[in-house]
Backbone:
């Protein structure tokens, strides 16, 4: 384990909790799922719906795939995120296990545990809560924030958060609901005797205070100093389900010129979401500060019809990707290179 020497020992144990949506092993691969999305949009069999914006089309899940539905956006709406994904998965996992056969995390009553949450999913944001407990968020994407106590938090694809929790006595469900989709992942936290919760258990904490990590305040020692941007790049996020195609500034990756920056510049990216679904936007090679909260991150949720601006210092020369962390969106075009000029 790598320990940060500045990190005070405020917890007794650490658990890594990986959230995922899962299709492999159900008779289909992610590539086949993508092909189905593209196929749906390619045949024009929805009569006149081609090119309509995401979320403006019919609500019936299509595709006729066993155990999976796609494109039923109006059945995949989150009050927090808007359009929450393109695919209703057959399984949502915590540490590789389905809710009927969950991982058990063993602790002791009153122990302070750090839980490192990672959303490794392709198309699913998760709302996470631990039944009977409140969580204190201490870091997002590896950077400290002003500690914030909450009942639940939402992580988009690619986002990470560290939370600390003081454990109660018994058996508790750690639940990750697929935001806007209905299914969930489950792990058990056991510190004593108690019955095992039902796989579909819904802790009340899920519907109390819910934090989105972009709103967290950076802790003072990692705050980006205040500076006027030397360069602003505006990235308008667009796309459609039919054809299945996701864009930045109206074009897909192959047709986009790199965004230029110069070493030493303070760069601002403005993510302008013109679609009806959320996009977790990810920047490689740099850690940005979310304008407003100051949270230091590399992946930020941009909800529908919202603009999120992020600032970073161009201090890592090279060629770097910026993309939506919905992997189906990235794969079909919502990705751009940024490049250092000489
Ligand atoms: Cu996206």
Residues:
């Amino acid at each position: 384990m790598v320990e940060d020497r500045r990190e005070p020992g405020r917890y007794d144990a650490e658990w890594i909790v990986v959230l995922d949506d899962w299709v492999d092993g159900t008779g289909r691969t992610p590539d086949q799922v993508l092909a189905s999305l593209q196929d749906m949009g390619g045949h024009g069999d929805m009569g006149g719906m081609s090119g309509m914006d995401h979320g403006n089309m019919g609500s019936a899940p299509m595709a006729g795939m066993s155990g999976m539905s796609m494109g039923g956006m109006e059945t995949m709406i989150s009050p927090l995120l808007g359009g929450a994904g393109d695919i209703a998965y057959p399984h949502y996992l915590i540490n590789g296990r389905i809710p009927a056969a969950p991982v058990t995390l063993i602790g002791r009553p009153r122990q302070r545990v750090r839980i490192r949450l990672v959303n490794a999913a392709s198309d699913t944001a998760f709302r996470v809560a631990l039944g009977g407990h409140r969580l204190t968020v201490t870091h997002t994407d590896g950077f400290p924030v002003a500690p914030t106590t909450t009942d639940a938090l939402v992580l988009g694809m690619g986002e990470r958060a560290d939370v600390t929790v003081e454990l109660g006595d018994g058996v508790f469900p750690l639940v990750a609901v697929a935001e806007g989709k209905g299914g969930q992942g489950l792990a058990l936290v056991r510190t004593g005797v108690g019955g095992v919760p039902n796989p579909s258990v819904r802790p009340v904490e899920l519907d109390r205070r819910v934090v989105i990590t972009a709103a967290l305040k950076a802790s003072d020692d990692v705050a980006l100093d205040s500076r006027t941007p030397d360069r602003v790049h505006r990235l308008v996020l667009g796309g459609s389900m039919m054809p299945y195609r996701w864009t930045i500034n109206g074009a897909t990756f192959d047709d986009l010129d790199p965004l230029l920056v110069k070493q030493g510049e303070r760069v601002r990216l403005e993510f302008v979401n013109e679609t009806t679904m959320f996009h977790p936007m990810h920047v490689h090679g740099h850690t940005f500060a979310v304008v407003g909260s100051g949270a230091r991150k590399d992946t930020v949720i941009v909800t529908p019809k919202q603009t999120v601006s992020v600032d970073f210092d161009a201090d890592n020369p090279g060629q770097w990707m910026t993309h939506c962390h919905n992997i189906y969106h990235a794969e079909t075009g919502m990705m751009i290179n940024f490049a250092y000029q000489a």
Summary: Residues 246, 279, 324, 326, 329, 334 surround copper (II) ion (CB under 6 Å). The chain has a mean pLDDT of 89. The two ends are 39 Å apart (CA to CA).
